[in-house]
Design brief:
Helices cover 66% and strands 3% of the residues. The protein contains 8 helices and 3 strands, in the order αβββααααααα. Strands 1-2-3 form a 3-stranded antiparallel beta sheet.
Length: 178
C-alpha cells in the first residue's frame, strides 16, 4: 500500500469540514484538526483548508514521521491500519499497540528481542516486524490486524465511558475498527 493510497482511503472516511460541538478536536477539514493544521503552518479558516495541504500533512505527520509508511512496506494492511488509527487518535497510541503485540508474540524474547513500548517505530520495531512476517506470513498479518483492531475498539469504549459526550462518535469510530 502506498502512502498516497493510505491517504486517499482516510480522506474518504474523514470527509470535508466538520465542527461538531462534542468533538474535542474542534473544527476539522479532511480529518485534519485545527491544532494540527496550525502546527504545520496553516493560518487560514479551517473551512478553506486546501485538500493538497491536508495530503501533505497526512504524508509527513501520519505516514512518514511515525513510521507507518515503513510498516506498510512490510505489511500493507498493518501500515494502513496504523495510519488510519493514528489520524483518528494520534499516531503514538497505535504505534505502542504494535510494539505491545510484537512483544506478546515473541515467545518471551526467543523469536526477537523485546521492544521498548514507546511509540517510536524505528529499526528495532521494523526488524521485529520483519522477523514476525518471515515466521507467520500473510496469516500473521491478519492476526496482528485483529489484535490492533481489538485494541482500537476497546479504546473507543474507554473514551465513551470516561466522557459520555463522546458517545456521539462511537458508532462511526467502530466502523474504523471493523
Amino acid at each position: 500500500m502506498t502512502i498516497e493510497a493510505m491517504i486517499e482511503a482516510t480522506i474518504g472516511k474523514e470527509g470535508g469540514y466538520v465542527d461538531h460541538p462534542a468533538d474535542r478536536g474542534g473544527p476539522t477539514r479532511w480529518g485534519i484538526t485545527e491544532a494540527v493544521a496550525r502546527a504545520n503552518g496553516y493560518k487560514g479558516d479551517m473551512r478553506d483548508l486546501p485538500r493538497a495541504t491536508a495530503v501533505a500533512i497526512y504524508r509527513q505527520e501520519y505516514a512518514i514521521k511515525p513510521g507507518f509508511a515503513a510498516v506498510a512496506e512490510i505489511f500493507p494492511r498493518i501500515g494502513e491500519e496504523l495510519f488510519d488509527t493514528g489520524v483518528n487518535m494520534g499516531p503514538a497510541r497505535p504505534a505502542i499497540w504494535l510494539q505491545e503485540w510484537l512483544n506478546a508474540l515473541n515467545q518471551g524474547g526467543k523469536l526477537w528481542p523485546d521492544l521498548k513500548e514507546d511509540g517510536a517505530i524505528g529499526p528495532a520495531t521494523l526488524a521485529a516486524l520483519r522477523s514476525y512476517k518471515a515466521l507467520r506470513g500473510a496469516e500473521g498479518e491478519a492476526r496482528l490486524l485483529a489484535g490492533l483492531n481489538g485494541d482500537q475498539a476497546v479504546r473507543y469504549k474507554q473514551i465513551a465511558r470516561a466522557n459520555p459526550s463522546q458517545e456521539a462518535f462511537v458508532y462511526g469510530w467502530l466502523g474504523r475498527a471493523a
